[in-house]
Design a protein that fits this description.
The chain is an alpha/beta fold and 493 residues long. It is built from 18 helices and 15 strands. Helix 4 runs antiparallel to helix 15, helix 7 packs across helix 13 and helix 10 runs parallel beside helix 12. The protein is globular and about 60 Å long.
Length: 493
């Protein structure tokens, strides 16, 4: 029972009187009564507010207090001749409000609670098989078996991560023969997947480019704004999506980049833009690079789908290599969640391309300094998988084949969805924008009300901006999804 009773030293004088009396009374009372009182005390808490004024009367066997001032927190419990008074202690976390559910991860929670057999989860971007089951790459299993055979330990990594991982990941991004690699002008630090790598870069911007603004596409991945807000880095949006064409607003994008303060950071999606799936053409990338150079901006790439978008590692890194070839300093956040299916391993990197090896060494030292109080050092398991796969010619070729397979399945689903929409929709609407998009997502053009109809009526779970993950769709479900989209588009305003 002692753990139910607060220390007398923790209470104010009046509470000490009451609590001392309680203890005296409890020790001379039957066990059942004592337990009842302890329960009441636990519920009500034995701290008394200072505004309780009164006096203690033991004559007549009762406790009485001046009731001039009513207190809503006061609870009174009577036990025969004795009245016990206690105040409810308000939590110090009363000011903490309930956070809204995550707009992406919250979709999966709602999906799990739905018992309808036709339900589809097209919210979270995670690859699924044709049977809509999670997929672990065969090459990943082989890499893990190698780790077991070698009996590798679980010692801490250095702050910057696994050296072998950092080497192969920079080479994968820029190409092993790229001058930025040969001249050691890339500062690479292993990060906690793409999100953690972006957050580390944001901390670098906040500390060494105070007041600099980050330009973010409209729309963009939902977590980008959260990352920069938490890092206290100001941001603004540049036009990207044109709802009239369900395509790229290239003129608006260029105009907004030109209008931004000189020296801004421009966040660009290296390939398979999330959420739209709309990428600039090679010619448009050249123009974007021209404007960024003219304005002395710093390009900041988010590369989450290298090899997973088109099936080609080199093609999907084309935009980053274009900017590097121009001698521009740039930042690139990488993730291996999608292309190696290492979602839960949280494996990625932040790369900073500098004009000299000396500058790269200094930048790397400061990235390590920022990482130390954040998470100290990164996890080892995913890093060793990447190092084993990318660093071994045989496993590397097997990985490329598996990526082509995954990218191919998504392309087939995209084509089947387009065919189903075109065949079923008799309105004459052009759905070809679906084929022009790339990667695991498709921006359907549905608004919030129409997206709600997809969920409420058709049990299709998706983000409210109209984005669907084609990775969560099978060929067998394409016609059902087409029916849902057509109904929502034409019958919901």
């Amino acid at each position: 029972m002692s753990h139910l009773i607060p220390s007398l030293n923790d209470l104010d004088p009046l509470s000490k009187v009451l609590t001392g009396f309680d203890l005296f009374w409890m020790t001379s009372t039957s066990t059942s009564t004592m337990l009842s009182l302890a329960s009441a005390s636990l519920t009500a808490s034995l701290s008394v507010h200072e505004n309780l004024k009164g006096r203690l009367k033991l004559g007549g066997g009762s406790l009485s207090f001046n009731k001039d001032k009513a207190n809503p927190f006061i609870k009174t419990k009577s036990f025969s001749r004795i009245s016990m008074v206690a105040a409810i202690k308000v939590s110090r976390f009363e000011g903490v409000t309930m956070a809204p559910p995550d707009p992406i991860l919250g979709v999966s929670e709602a999906f799990k609670a739905d018992n309808d057999q036709k339900k589809l989860n097209l919210g979270v971007g995670a690859y699924r098989t044709e049977e809509l089951q999670p997929y672990v790459l065969n090459v990943v299993k082989k890499a893990e078996n190698l780790m077991v055979e070698r009996g590798e330990n679980k010692e801490y990594l250095p702050i910057e991560g696994l050296a072998a991982f950092n080497k192969v990941t920079a080479e994968l991004l820029f190409g092993a023969s790229n001058p930025v690699i040969k001249e050691q002008r890339v500062a690479t630090v292993q990060g906690l997947s793409g999100t953690g790598s972006l957050r580390l870069a944001a901390a670098l911007i906040e500390r060494y480019f105070p007041g600099a603004k980050v330009l973010i596409s409209s729309p963009t991945w939902g977590n980008h704004k959260n990352i920069f807000n938490d890092a206290r880095v100001p941001w603004s949006e540049y036009r990207y999506y044109d709802p009239k064409t369900v395509g790229l607003d290239f003129d608006g994008m260029i105009a907004d980049i030109k209008a931004a303060p000189e020296g801004s950071f421009v966040l660009l999606h290296g390939c398979a833009h999330n959420p739209t799936g709309i990428d600039p053409t090679p010619e448009q990338w050249e123009k974007i690079a021209d404007v960024i150079q003219e304005k002395n901006h710093i390009p900041f790439f988010d590369v989450a789908y290298q090899g997973f978008a088109s099936g080609s590692l080199d093609a999907d890194a084309g935009s980053v290599r274009l900017f590097a070839a121009r001698g521009m300093e740039l930042l690139v956040a990488q993730s291996y969640s999608k292309n190696l299916g290492l979602y839960a391993e949280r494996i990625g990197a932040i790369n900073v391309v500098c004009t000299s090896a000396d500058a790269a060494a200094r930048v790397k030292s400061q990235l390590k300094r920022l990482a130390r109080p954040m998470y100290s050092n990164p996890p080892i398991h995913g890093a060793k998988i990447v190092a084993n796969v990318v660093g071994d010619p045989t496993l590397f070729n097997e990985w490329k084949a598996e990526m082509e397979m995954m990218a191919g399945r998504i392309k087939n689903v995209r084509k089947k969805l387009y065919d189903s929409l075109s065949a079923k929709d008799k309105s004459g609407k052009d759905w070809s924008f679906i084929l022009k998009q790339i990667g695991m997502f498709s921006f359907t053009g549905l608004n919030k009300a129409q997206s709600d109809n997809m969920t409420n009526k058709w049990h299709v779970y998706m983000t409210k901006d109209g984005r669907i993950s084609l990775a969560g769709l099978s060929l067998a479900k394409c016609e059902y999804l087409a029916d849902a989209i057509i109904d929502s588009f034409h019958n919901v305003s």
